[in-house]
Write a sequence for this structure.
């Protein structure tokens, strides 16, 4: 059995022009007695937001800021934050998520004794009070990628299934609220920096499972998550998703992976542009756009 993790919990947050919800997120982490430090990687937030963050850092030594001066992507930002963090347990948290006291401790408790490299993911609750897509998912396949990318219903998403009362193994959990030991994170060489935004959490869960580790959904930890708050164009978001999917199937498609990536890259890119166009048309007409989070 693996050795129990030690007590130090470092929260790592990567932010790019997130908006005022970032301050709510930071304040919630600093108010949590079970978090020992917060490493915030600032990817080019506005000057007034940086001033507010620096004021908080001066008043609370647990907050440490890393200013990158540019948007280096989510994966690279997480790796920078993890490298700087001091704790033996790493809590990766989206900048638009709000932590409650006890959440980090419960996630750490669930992490203890798991086969490494282990990953524990929390349940994400949207502003409407419902569970969001992404917190518990199956293994990504070509079929689920296409149906999910088109906003169609598929078995990849499991938020509509009955909620378990205890932690359960799950092929994929969300990087919006994810806990790992430092040892497990380093064994996987962290997040793959080839992903700029999206799909990196699916990838690290896949690599953890392939390495003999456990990926677990913790339903008892519910974290409020706004979602889609960064000031980045929807076109860019869709393109990053498409490129991420192409990379995923290139890396995890076996002997024909490179062929899959070569073929699927343009397909996903065209789909991304088409989906953006449809979303804009639906927004103009007031129709509801299909959910398409992977």
């Amino acid at each position: 059995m693996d050795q129990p993790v030690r007590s130090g919990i470092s929260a790592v947050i990567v932010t790019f022009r997130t908006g005022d919800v970032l301050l709510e997120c930071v304040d919630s982490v600093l108010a949590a007695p079970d978090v020992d430090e917060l490493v915030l990687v600032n990817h080019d937030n506005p000057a007034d937001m940086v001033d507010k963050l620096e004021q908080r850092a001066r008043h609370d030594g647990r907050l440490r800021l890393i200013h990158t001066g540019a948007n280096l992507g989510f994966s690279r930002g997480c790796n920078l934050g993890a490298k700087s963090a001091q704790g033996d347990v790493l809590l990766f948290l989206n900048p638009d998520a709000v932590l409650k006291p006890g959440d980090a401790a419960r996630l750490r408790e669930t992490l203890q004794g798991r086969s490494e490299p282990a990953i524990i993911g929390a349940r994400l609750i949207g502003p409407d009070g419902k569970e969001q897509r992404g917190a518990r998912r199956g293994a990504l396949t070509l079929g689920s990628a296409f149906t999910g990318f088109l906003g169609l219903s598929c078995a990849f998403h499991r938020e509509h299934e009955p909620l378990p009362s205890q932690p359960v193994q799950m092929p994929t959990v969300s990087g919006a609220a994810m806990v790992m030991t430092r040892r497990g994170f380093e064994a996987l060489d962290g997040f793959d920096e080839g992903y700029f935004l999206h799909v990196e959490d699916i990838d690290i869960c896949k690599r953890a499972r392939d390495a003999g580790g456990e990926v677990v959904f913790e339903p008892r930890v519910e974290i409020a998550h706004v979602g889609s708050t960064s000031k980045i164009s929807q076109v860019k978001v869709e393109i990053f998703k498409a490129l991420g999917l192409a990379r995923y199937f290139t890396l995890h498609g076996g002997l024909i992976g490179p062929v899959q990536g070569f073929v699927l890259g343009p397909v996903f890119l065209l789909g991304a542009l088409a989906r953006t166009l449809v979303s804009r048309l639906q927004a103009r007409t007031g129709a509801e756009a299909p959910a398409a989070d992977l």
Observations:
- The CA atoms of residues 19 and 173 lie 25 Å apart.
- The chain has nine helices and eleven strands.
- The first strand starts at residue 9 and ends at 15.
